[in-house]
Amino acid sequence: MSIPAMRRNARQLSSDQTIEILEQGTFGVLSTVDMEGQPYGVPLNYVFHQGVIYFHCAKDGYKLMNLSQNSRVSFCVVVQSTLLPEQFSTDYVSAIVFGTARQIKGQEKVDALRLLIRHLAPNQIDQGEDTISTQAEHTAVVKIVIDHLSGKSRKQEK
Fold this sequence. Notes:
Layout lengths: L11 E2 L1 H10 L2 E7 L5 E7 L1 E3 L2 E7 L3 H8 L2 E13 L4 E16 L1 H15 L4 H11 L3 E16 L4
Antiparallel strand pairs: 1-8, 2-3, 2-6, 4-5, 5-8, 6-7, 7-8
């Protein structure tokens, strides 16, 4: 995979800083492409664990249809954003991931659902376990294996 160098490389974050963004974040935008080349970006919750991203969704839908045709994805997370209208700019901290996505099944799926609950609803572990036991079969879980990641930050100069 050939990803162009970041144009504003002074704003580029290290791999460790980028991983911190992915660990901290709870919400990102998944971008896929359909059979006709139409891009599709969809916001969703996720968890980053041991170098991969997991998210859950319905078992049918546009994103899964796209993934079945083309597993290559981009995923963007913004953990901080402050509009600076007087400068016509924005302070931000963000990460972009390129990788491949596929549905997972069995114990890996259950484990990923548990990770999602711990990350997104840490005070609801027991209720989450109950939901997994009754709803997991009606839920798809997708794993994104990361091929490339980059982070970028702009902080207002004081």
